[in-house]
Each structure stands twice: as structure tokens, then as C-alpha cells.
TrEMBL record:
InterPro entries: AAA+_ATPase, ABC_transporter-like_ATP-bd, ABC_transporter-like_CS, ABC_transporter_ATP-bind, P-loop_NTPase. The lineage of its organism: Bacteria, Pseudomonadati, Pseudomonadota, Alphaproteobacteria, Hyphomicrobiales. PROSITE patterns: ABC_TRANSPORTER_1, ABC_TRANSPORTER_2. Keywords: ATP-binding, Hydrolase, Nucleotide-binding, Plasmid, Transport. This is Sulfonate/nitrate/taurine transport system ATP-binding protein. Its EC number is 3.6.3.-. Belongs to the ABC transporter superfamily. Pfam families: ABC_tran (PF00005). Residues 1-224 form the ABC transporter domain. GO terms for molecular function: ATP binding; ATP hydrolysis activity. It comes from the Bacteria.
Length: 224
């Protein structure tokens, strides 16, 4: 992922808000990068641009050498809130990206959903409704859904922020296990310094608004 002098100015009724200024950095293939920074410094804005959900006002984002113009299948995204379909069971939520892309769900998609649910520790919950699950379990469903299309890149925007400390810790270790089995390029937004240190190959710290990358912190131990 390559960011080149990225800038974002939002036009609002009260005037322009500059969210990002001159952000340049590269994330290597299969690198796990965390981004830390105060609220409102532009982290979500940055992530939405990688996902193709928001067009930069200036500069560019490229993924695998191609400029990001629109959402794509090889990028999975996990939001702060699980955003599951409340009327659909766990399995139907996980296969949703396949339905969205092709209009139908194949037995292979369901098989893959089963594998992913097993990977996130939710075997046996396929037919449950989201409301029957805890917040942590719903977030695991969101992770399985993001992985369904086997994306090369996984983006996570404070995926654990609504969870209690113990669940967060367990989820952190689960992620490590998942990515050691299937390496991915990951950009992970978090407020937790310990989570960033535990999970990442590299930590980027963003300044106050308008955000630009302030420092790059090398994690000495991290994922060993
Ligand atoms: P963070 O994720 O670091 O908390 P955001 O990327 O959500 O920060 O927001 C960065 C800045 O851009 C904030 O000042 C926010 O209010 C503003 N902003 C974000 N999205 C929009 C939008 N769609 N319209 C106007 N302003 C926005
Ligand atoms: P010390 O203070 O002796 O360096 P810690 O108490 O910080 O050690 O950490 C003990 C173990 O718990 C380490 O393996 C560390 O990676 C892990 N750990 C610490 N904080 C977290 C966290 N938030 N999530 C997951 N594991 C953690």
C-alpha cells in the first residue's frame, strides 16, 4: 500500500475541515502496521481511502501498484461496530460478501464460512442470530466476514474498542494465530499501545488534526 502526499479536506456547512495533510508512507506485503493517534486526527479517513470508500482531495493511494478508485474484493474491512445484518444468522452474515458480489451463495462459500467461523472460535453458532451473541462474538463474525473473499489486505478500524479488557486480550492472541496461518497485509487502527506493540511489525503515530504521520516506532519484540 503506497500513500503519496495524501490530503483530505472535508467541505462542511461550517466551512472546510482539513483532516489529513501530506501523508506519505508504504506498507509492505504481509506487513502488520498499527496506527495510533488522538481522536479526530484522521485515522478512519485514512483507512476509508485505502478501502476506496473515500476519494482523497489531494495525493493518491495505490495498492499493488494500482491507484485505488473504488472498493475492491481484495480488501477486507472490519469496523469499530460489528455492523451485522440483524435479521440474518451468523453464517448468512459471513457469506454476505459473496452474495453481494455474485448475487448468489455457493456451497463452497458456505464451506469457507464454516472454516472461518471455526478459526475465530464460533463453530456451532452458524444458525444463531447476532443478537444472541456477545459483543466480542459479533466482532469475531465481522472478522470472519472480512476474510471470506480471502482478501490480500485487511483493514481494521478499532475493532476491539467496544470490548472489555479480557476479551480484547483474547482477541489479540486470536488474530496473531489467524495471521500466522494465513499471512495478510494489515492496517490496524487502535488506541491501545500494548495491542499495537503485541500485534504489529511497525507502529505509526499520527499527529493531531490535520493528521500527518509524526513518527514511526519500530517494535523490538512484537510478533515472535
Ligand atoms: P479519527 O479516526 O482519527 O478519530 P477521523 O478520520 O474520523 O479521525 O476524522 C478526522 C477529522 O475529519 C475530524 O475532524 C472529523 O470531524 C473530520 N471528518 C471525518 N469525516 C468527515 C466527513 N464525512 N465530513 C466532514 N468532516 C469529517
Ligand atoms: P513485562 O511487564 O514483564 O514486560 P507484561 O506484563 O507487559 O510483561 O506482559 C506479559 C505478557 O502478556 C507478554 O507476553 C505480553 O506480550 C502479553 N501482553 C501484555 N499486554 C497484552 C495485551 N494487551 N494483549 C495481549 N497480550 C498482552
Amino acid at each position: 500500500i503506497r500513500f503519496d502526499k495524501l490530503g483530505q479536506v472535508f467541505k462542511t456547512r461550517s466551512g472546510p475541515t482539513e483532516a489529513l495533510r501530506d501523508v506519505s508512507f508504504d506498507v509492505a506485503r504481509h506487513e502488520f502496521v498499527s496506527i495510533l493517534g488522538p481522536s479526530g486526527c484522521g485515522k478512519s479517513t485514512l483507512l476509508r481511502m485505502i478501502a476506496g470508500l473515500l476519494k482523497p482531495t489531494s495525493g493518491s493511494v495505490a495498492v499493488f501498484g494500482l491507484r485505488v478508485e473504488a472498493p475492491r474484493d481484495d480488501i477486507g474491512i472490519v469496523f469499530q461496530k460489528p455492523t451485522l445484518l440483524p435479521w440474518a444468522n451468523v453464517e448468512d452474515n459471513v457469506v454476505f460478501p459473496a452474495r453481494h458480489k455474485t448475487g448468489r451463495v455457493t456451497p463452497k462459500d458456505r464451506e469457507r464460512a464454516g472454516e472461518l467461523l471455526k478459526m475465530v472460535g464460533l463453530s456451532g453458532f452458524e444458525k444463531r442470530l447476532p443478537e444472541e451473541l456477545s459483543g466480542g462474538m459479533q466482532q469475531r463474525v465481522g472478522i470472519a466476514r472480512a476474510l471470506l473473499m480471502d482478501p490480500d489486505i485487511l483493514l481494521m478500524d478499532e475493532p476491539f474498542s467496544a470490548l472489555d479488557a479480557l476479551t480484547r486480550e483474547v482477541m489479540g492472541f486470536d488474530l496473531l494465530r489467524i495471521f500466522s496461518e494465513r499471512p495478510k497485509t494489515v492496517v490496524f487502527i487502535t488506541h491501545s499501545v500494548s495491542e499495537a506493540a503485541l500485534l504489529s511489525d511497525r507502529v505509526l503515530v499520527m499527529t493531531e488534526r490535520p493528521g500527518s504521520i509524526l513518527t514511526e516506532v519500530t517494535v523490538p519484540v512484537g510478533r515472535t
